[in-house]
């Protein structure tokens, strides 16, 4: 372990871009398939790992949705969540704000409440047993219709006290943020924070739409904002938090090589960048791996790494008092 890797390992941090279904490791996928008598198209853990050799968003989504079929019961979702939090705690993640895709489950007959209650049970265990706090963000699948998103929001109403926000994910190209203006406005009326994936595979125009039409509080990815000077200036001025996911970008060929990743330029231009793992079981690394591999590839300084860890708490939906507590821990660590 290099000095910088050890420094990253001990640094308190938050994770703001994590799809809980994307933390389903092959071992747990097999265990749940056997527990629930679900047939999966793989005969070994190694075969699952081999199938993770995809190179674009759609190929990834195909296997992601297939893997989700093993998630059937409240206990399955609790086990999924707690397994993630154990890895997060090992990476010194103190707080995580996690996405889940209810439509992935309700569309195959799993009750909305089963999903939410299982995830919340895992989150509660993480707080009690691991000291990791968390919040839950309901994501709409953008390849489905806005009417279907409204139906999901209606299903969520009895459980609203469990959610901190809504998000927008899945296939980006051809599904602009403008498709979901009304449902995002309705979520805002319910008191929820708003996040959206924009500028990963989609063009800078989608970033403009997320800002101007959805009025988001936080942007997921945002890489292609760097193609538009007016966006760079605006994002820096507004200090819009970007939840960047380096290993995901590499795996999905958003960048061809980590050494070409835009994070150093984003930081130089004053953007409020955070580092996250996205779908770590599929993309080859949890939070610390994203920090350390990017640091090695582009030559990040300790000061830049500290800044992104601070950004991760500043950009969270924690209270100001909770943020100050975590930022003080970073200062103490660095001091």
Rounded mean pLDDT is 96
**Uncertain runs with pLDDT below 50, 5 residues or more?**
none
- Which secondary-structure class do the elements indicate? alpha/beta
Alpha-carbon distance between the two ends: 21 Å
Characterize the overall form. globular
Q: What is the percentage of strand-forming residues?
A: 5-15%
Number of strands: 8
Number of helical stretches of at least 4 residues: 17
Q: Could you give a short account of the major beta sheet?
A: 8 strands, parallel
Residue share in helices? 40-55%
C-alpha Rg, in Å?
19 Å
In N-to-C order, the SSE pattern is: HEHHHHEHHEHEHEHEHEHHEHHHH
Q: What is the spatial order of strands in the main beta sheet? A: 1-2-3-4-5-6-7-8
Key terms:
335 residues, alpha/beta, eight-stranded parallel beta sheet, 8 strands, 15% strand
Mind explaining what this structure looks like?
This protein has 335 residues and is α/β, with parallel strands linked by helices. The chain is 52% helix and 15% strand. It has 17 helices and eight strands. It has helices at 3-10, 26-36, 45-51, 57-68, 74-90, 102-106, 112-130, 146-156, 181-189, 204-212, 229-238, 246-251, 263-268, 280-283, 287-298, 302-314, 320-334; strands at 13-19, 93-100, 133-141, 163-169, 193-198, 218-221, 241-244, 272-275. Helix 5 packs parallel to helix 7 (112-130). The two termini are 21 Å apart.
